[in-house]
Design a protein that fits this description.
The protein contains 19 helices and 26 strands. By secondary structure, it is an alpha+beta fold. It folds into 4 domains: about 190 residues, Heat Shock Protein 90; about 120 residues, Ribosomal Protein S5, domain 2, CATH 3.30.230; about 120 residues, formyl-coa transferase, domain 3 (2-Layer Sandwich); about 90 residues, MutL, C-terminal domain, regulatory subdomain (Ribosomal Protein S8, Chain: A, domain 1). Strands 7-6-5-8-3-2-9-10 form an 8-stranded mixed sheet, with helices on one face. Strands 11-12-15-13-14 form a 5-stranded mixed sheet, sandwiched between helices. A 4-stranded antiparallel sheet has the order 20-21-22-26. It is elongated and about 95 Å long. The chain binds zinc ion (ZN) (2 copies). The site of one zinc ion has 3 residues, from helix 13.
Amino acid sequence: MSRIIQLDEHLSNLIAAGEVVERVSSVVKELVENSLDAKSTNISIELVDSGIREIKVIDDGMGMDKEDIHLSFLRHATSKIKNQYDLFRINTLGFRGEAIPSIASVSDLVIKSNPGDIGYYVHLRANKILDEGIISLNKGTEITVSNLFFNTPARLKYLKNENVELANVCEVVDKLAISNPNVRFKLTNNKKVLLQTNGNNDMKSIIGNIYGVESIKNMIEVTGEKNGIKVKCFLAQPTVNKSRKSAITLIVNGRDVKNYGIMNSIIEGYDTYIPVGRYPLAVVFVNLDPLLIDVNVHPTKKEIRVSSEDLVKGLITKTIKDALYKSRLIPEIKIKKEEEMFINSEKEIKYEDKITENLSYEKQSFLEEEIDTLEKRIPYMEYIGQYAGTYLLFQNENGLYLMDQHAAAERIRYEKYIEALSNPTKVSQDLLVPAIIEVTKNEKIFIQKNNEELKNIGLVLEDAGDNNLYLRSVPVWFIGNSIEITEEMIKCIVESNTIDIKSIRDELAKRISCKGAIKANRNVEATEANDLLKQLSECKNPFTCPHGRPVIINISQNEIEKLFLRIM
Ligand code: ZN
Ligand code: ZN
């Protein structure tokens, strides 16, 4: 019996939204998703010249008989959607009744398939049958697409160079492999293996295959659930951060998708653990009622809309935050042997690789039950002294610790400011002598217009003529130089063009926490150092400054002894 059903016209019109084939990667994606739908356990993608010359996808799935093969290149035929209701449930991978006909119309296409008894092939060019007949083939399907866009020069021109096409294919296949850990994937270009997974459902090994072994060192695996929504996260350590957002993989109901808000909730979960402008390496699976998902935003793109998006976002951010909160994240420095250093310096390592190569995290301890015992996040350590006027040295049985005094002070202030700004009160303290603050014209107008709101959070400013303001009172929660903090606050408020302090809380706290925090090159005495350590260990995240730089690093005694060749 034929498995592919032709859709009724109404439904066909619903899904006839745009062409599916734009470039090599979209062809690969469509073909592989068809293979997945056919319940394949082995999928091999073989490219010639990055797929511009030839794309071949071989699977061991259910296969098609002669009739199914013929239906597959008719428009609006699909084995997946039977009625309109199904269109709104994307438990299956989507609807690609369009895929084969679209690809066939712009290429030279050979479909070979065997549903288990006899193999059949059809050779098409620009959707015209050139040749067909019985062949010998194992169960499954093999589709070869050559000379893509040969008859549409405009689109052929749109194909970028080989490297760009190949990079896009890799990303597509990487994400398909992650969303289908039970399927064996093999991707080659001109016979060179680019990805190979073993299909044994081991997510960490797949992520390691794709992003390298450093990425899965001490990887955090965590789940969360709320109102029937389930999330499962595989989180690389924050030091394994990347320059591209594509390091984040979002899988909703088994399908790799894009959703701006949900992707951002993952970044937000990493909060200040990661430097500004960098992205975490994270794979997040979300499972929810398919009726909550709207795929019609654009059926061929990966964008989806979720009706209870805020709930999903909140759950993800909280799950990630809690998991990072429970981990001890002091980077441990591994000192390389001379010859290794030599080899590496020749390789021209990128900045991000350098970080991930040199820092591996101290064995992470999950303090599931003991989350309240905060002092365990920063172990007990004894102050030794200050180095270069900037780093505070501590020691304990795990070795030597270096703390960046500015980063530490900034982190402590940041957490205090975040709390104060979440619930700003009127309570203020007067300055003995009002200070003069110099502002721009624009700033002055904005401040005077919003004077009352500023008073409500304890900041009292008055006109002092020209481009000046008198600073009379400051909020009680200001720490340090009131003038510097006020100046920074005015700048931040005017730049964000809002007086709603809560809405700019994070940005504001980041900026004023830097102001007046102990700078580098300042002498720090033992009492102050110990006080910093104590306050730091009370922080929610004592490991990075609000801009994501490390606060404290560790060199184990073992590493030091290796350096002196006391141990080999
Ligand atoms: Zn700073
Ligand atoms: Zn900082």
